[in-house]
Amino acid sequence: MTKTNAGRFFEDYAVGDVITHAVPRTIQMGERALYHALYPARHALHSADTFAQSCGLPFSPLDDLVTFHTVFGKTVPDVSLNAVANLGYAEGRWETPLWPGDTITATSEVIGVKQNSNGKSGVVWVRTTGRNQHGAVLLSYVRWVMVRKRGDGPAPQTVIPDLSGSVAATDLVIPRGLDFTNYDFALAGEPHRMSDYKVGDIIDHVDGVTVEEAEHMLATRLWQNTAKVHFDATNRPDGKRLIYGGHVISLARALSFNGLANAQLIVALNGGAHANPCFAGDTVRAWSEVLNTAETTAPGIGAIRLRLVATKGTAGELRDDDGKYLPDVLLDLDYWALMPL
Amino acid sequence: MTKTNAGRFFEDYAVGDVITHAVPRTIQMGERALYHALYPARHALHSADTFAQSCGLPFSPLDDLVTFHTVFGKTVPDVSLNAVANLGYAEGRWETPLWPGDTITATSEVIGVKQNSNGKSGVVWVRTTGRNQHGAVLLSYVRWVMVRKRGDGPAPQTVIPDLSGSVAATDLVIPRGLDFTNYDFALAGEPHRMSDYKVGDIIDHVDGVTVEEAEHMLATRLWQNTAKVHFDATNRPDGKRLIYGGHVISLARALSFNGLANAQLIVALNGGAHANPCFAGDTVRAWSEVLNTAETTAPGIGAIRLRLVATKGTAGELRDDDGKYLPDVLLDLDYWALMPL
Amino acid sequence: MTKTNAGRFFEDYAVGDVITHAVPRTIQMGERALYHALYPARHALHSADTFAQSCGLPFSPLDDLVTFHTVFGKTVPDVSLNAVANLGYAEGRWETPLWPGDTITATSEVIGVKQNSNGKSGVVWVRTTGRNQHGAVLLSYVRWVMVRKRGDGPAPQTVIPDLSGSVAATDLVIPRGLDFTNYDFALAGEPHRMSDYKVGDIIDHVDGVTVEEAEHMLATRLWQNTAKVHFDATNRPDGKRLIYGGHVISLARALSFNGLANAQLIVALNGGAHANPCFAGDTVRAWSEVLNTAETTAPGIGAIRLRLVATKGTAGELRDDDGKYLPDVLLDLDYWALMPL
């Protein structure tokens, strides 16, 4: 009898199942410093207690993507150990900031299953919820993955969840106390407020970062993400390790400071595709497209919906004539952020 | 007159000498985060304050190997700067958990010397003790190394310490308050309790991690270990740096989560050999063998004695027909851990 | 209209202008741990709260160079984005220690401009001041850089600031409470007090560290220094990234522990030149020359003025017969440190 975790196969997911993911994790100041070492992150609200306090918060919360990565990492042994592909995200909402000292736990509910026609694999949809030590929801999101079947039993009844294409602006949760009335644009790094951005604007974030094996492995381990493709060079003839898609998300988001310095907090993840794999040696660049803007009920705070693209190629270029992602495109992410009106 | 430290030679050790190692070190949340970035560590007691609290501790202690590495690093300038080989460990006991904010100091007593027959070097045994800022013993262990002689003076009287082959289960120190009565196996990551393990069981920990130069140097510097072979590429024609043996210990211990997730705390080091050197580019795997189990007087807590092997090869394979370590074997470590009964 | 920062050109600096640098930064225990992972730093006052307390401080301050790097990083988008060369430093003084939890902001006053005879660029002098969240000055220093001109307008009136060749010993600021009367030389790592050092002494710090791309990028990002030459491999045909000069400063300063373990705090930067660029794969060594010593009014505390040289070559060798830096020399730094009398 083996003692190790072989991961779940398609047959092991039934709609309605709730999976408690193992190994809660306390996040502290150390993770914050590492986030700044791993990514060129400069958004002021995540950089300085004083800036966060001038915006009504008690002190600077961890980067919103620290919550995402930690929760995601918890799910890997139960959701994606035998996954063939990470197919999509939807309905992601950050509901509570992550403060230093908080402990994160995560659960996932199976909300959809659909066997593929080849009978060898199927798609599983889960709604994952990360909570802090008080039970408050930090983040919830839907993810769907293609998972191998163990055997050749009958297909389960197909259940495809009804997912919205984007989180409604009225459903965004604004952190308690957040107030951009006295927002200091000079300290934040750019003068642009929400009204300066128009739907359809394309912003080239200019800078590029070349990724090293050591960096993405440090990051992925930090989130306790154990998927072996990220760490074991013997998995591929060229010895390269597949870079965790979330590493590319954080790189692109950090690069987007240059042009979107005032898009301070991520509050929703509407969707996302890891268009092509990323490997060490790639130089990652980023560009954004403004998809929407909305007011909120919070003082001085607007919401901006952005497409964030990580690419090895040219800003503004996304798909070929057949609608397929260009080979240089690494990430196409759709999210809402908060910005001073 | 040079101001720099040339290290001690064999003649500089006399049985009974006590060496105060320099540079005390305060360990904080940052070291904890770095430990998780450097090693795929997931044992729940070291990951989450809430889990540690459910086991009777005030919050999550630093990984036990942080104590080991920091104490070991302190000894390097005094013990192993002119060492030819690190020969063995014995009688290691962790006596107090390391909490964030603690300051570590270390001393070593010379307990044995034996000149080699070639007259060029000798073996030195030291018992090293690491203490916290309150003077409490965090860890003590015996290490013996082969050290070069400076000159050709007479041999000192041979003193070989009488070392036990393993720490007796009754001598293990259980952290005050630790209680596994309400242990949460789901959050810990595996269902196996001590009674599920039998002496002789071999556990293949499955995963592999390919090591990069940047990673092992970050780790080794973090422990203020200054041995130049770990940092200076000009020491070898191929430019590779010899990886600190303790880096391999931490990698293997972290990998052992998969199959030994409930072996929560290391409480004794019975022995260990760095069987072959490890270099960047090596993919490190791990397997364990159950050597013994024992009850303790603490509530719900058993002790499991494990052989932990780090290897570039196959689980279960250790020595050739002549009893020599196979060339793929990196580490053969013998330790006691605490596990729910 | 672009939303991104194209940086300032020579025409954009006028003497008397004060630039508020963006993105304040809170520094915590995580940055401290990373500093120890990135550099072989062992000075006891920055390593242990207990040692700092035995010297009259409340606990261990961050390394003085953390203050320098963070302040410097803040200035990059406003001062050196279009810089052709970093020409020099002067009149640097640390006035307040950096404690964990402090938030750093920075401003720079333009104190000199001089157009080059080619009309394509010019030299800009700025006095940069870093402050903590209470408004106290942490560090101020003068830096001058060569910056490209945007157009071909007329030259501004030349203003060259009158800079002193070194900070006077009487102008050094000793941290409040610092007292070396009961200094523990054994714990600090070396027995040498200030009177053991003579002007003209050359100290070879012996050890070498080979630098990896991942390491210098982690460091440079940690200081939120965004200069693209440090991160983007497509900037050079060989794919190497130019290493931030400050990374070399920290490496050399950390290596100088071996021979200058009691030069505990940097209190002034008299001058410095990045003599040649440093790239990944270089093995950095360091040597120091004693330039001066002075008493201070603080108990048991002397000041030692040191030349710190980082080199890929031989200790003691600095310039060729024409007075040019040898090609192996990376850094020539002139600073004051505090040392027990």
Automatic annotation (TrEMBL), chains A, B, C:
The family database entries (Pfam families) matched by this protein are listed as: MC_hydratase (PF19315)
One function term, GO molecular function aspect: lyase activity
Q: Which residues form a coiled coil?
A: none
Q: Which domain of life is it from?
A: Bacteria
InterPro entries from the UniProt entry: HotDog_dom_sf (IPR029069), MC_hydratase (IPR048274), MCH/BMMD (IPR052342), Thiol_ester_hydratase_Rv0216 (IPR016790)
> What PANTHER family does the entry give?
BETA-METHYLMALYL-COA DEHYDRATASE (PTHR43664:SF1), MONOAMINE OXIDASE-RELATED (PTHR43664)
Please report the name of this protein according to its UniProt entry: L-erythro-3-methylmalyl-CoA dehydratase
The species this protein belongs to is Loktanella salsilacus
